From TrEMBL:
A Pfam entry, by short name: SBP_bac_6
Keywords, ordered alphabetically: Signal
SUPFAM superfamilies assigned to the protein according to its UniProt record, in alphabetical order: Periplasmic binding protein-like II
InterPro entries membership: Ferric-bd
Signal peptide region: 1-23
Protein name: Iron(III) transport system substrate-binding protein
Length: 335
């Protein structure tokens, strides 16, 4: 009987301790469109930096997750969304709350979101990805206008801007840099892929000589040892676009959600993401070239574009692009 009492006491004590631990543990839920590898790294970083925090994550396409957040406004389920570009997040501002994170002190003003409704999580740089084995007698391009040569027709691939924020960022930028006639020539030369991943894969496998891509998506092939793959930062300038994270309005994690956001954007976290997925940090206190074989942002010539205009004029631009591609195809068939 005495032994039974001791056993029962131990069980009840164990349940009490377990309940106490659960009560002390706080949960933060992140909706993310990022790769599992990156989400796992960030989750572990947050849990390490903040005692008694447990991170839950739900993944999906950025547009799908944004619509889910919007649908859950009366019963908020998540704390943080991470991450997407201006032309995606801009339409959902009302579902998020501004947050003056201390991290903003090391983020340059030119990539901050108006009113800090969203915080830059990383910066994408557009590059010309080249497979030197597929160039033939053509020299590697040095600037965007080099791609207008008719000899490149069918050898350049870019993602469909209607389906890919990467493709949209690139083609929107080029529509501002080039004259209308030059942009038409570019449209005539390129092949359109359904997704941005098909661009990098196509160039890496030798289906195309050139791909228009984000640096973080193209560099893994260089890092993986494909010596024929080179990244070119055009001499006439390229385009950058931040990806943003946001604190969801009415986040159930409250102050812990803010702490988790700060940890997501911490120096340790951003260096780790740079090393494991080549995401260029949004922080300006990290020397990128110390960790990976990429140039510093200050050494890249950037052609400035207006992210707000790109978001507000998305429908008109996609119609313009669709008409241009259709017209070029019609002219080609008529010849």
């Amino acid at each position: 009987m005495k032994k039974l009492k001791i056993v029962l006491t131990a069980i009840f004590f164990g349940l009490f301790v377990s309940s106490l631990a659960m009560a002390q543990e706080k949960r933060v839920t992140i909706y993310s469109s990022n790769p599992e590898q990156s989400i796992e790294f960030v989750s572990k970083t947050i849990e390490k930096e903040i005692p008694n925090i447990k991170v839950n994550s739900i993944t999906g396409g950025s547009g799908v997750l944004m619509r889910r957040i919007q649908a859950e406004e009366k019963n908020v389920q998540a704390d943080i969304f991470w991450s997407a570009s201006y032309n995606t997040v801009g339409a959902f501002e009302n579902s998020f709350q501004a947050y003056k994170s201390p991290v903003l002190d090391v983020i340059s003003d030119n990539i901050r979101y108006p009113g800090d409704v969203f915080i830059p999580a990383n910066v994408h740089v557009v590059v010309i990805m080249v497979n030197e084995d597929q160039l033939g007698n053509m020299p590697a391009p040095k600037n965007w206008k080099d791609l207008l040569d008719p000899s490149w027709k069918g050898k350049i691939v870019v993602a469909d801007p209607a389906n890919s924020s990467t493709g949209y960022t690139i083609l929107w930028g080029l529509s501002k840099m080039l004259t209308p006639d030059e942009f038409k020539q570019l449209a005539d030369n390129v092949v359109i892929s359904a997704s941005s991943s098909a661009v990098q894969n196509g160039v890496a496998m030798g289906e195309y000589a050139i791909g228009l891509a984000f640096e973080a998506n193209a560099y893994p092939y260089v890092d993986g040892g494909q010596k024929e793959i080179k990244l070119i930062y055009p001499e006439d300038g390229t385009f950058i676009t931040p990806e943003y994270a946001g604190l969801i309005k009415g986040a159930p994690g409250a102050e812990n959600a803010k702490r988790a956001m700060d940890a997501l954007l911490s120096q340790q976290s951003q260096i780790g993401l740079l090393q494991n997925s080549f995401r260029r940090p949004s922080r300006n206190d990290i020397e990128v070239s110390k960790y990976v074989g990429l140039p510093e942002l200050k050494d890249i010539k950037v052609f400035a574009t207006n992210e707000k205009d790109a978001a507000n004029n998305r429908a008109d631009f996609l119609k313009q692009w669709s008409d241009l591609v259709a017209k070029n195809k019609h002219e080609k068939n008529a010849q």
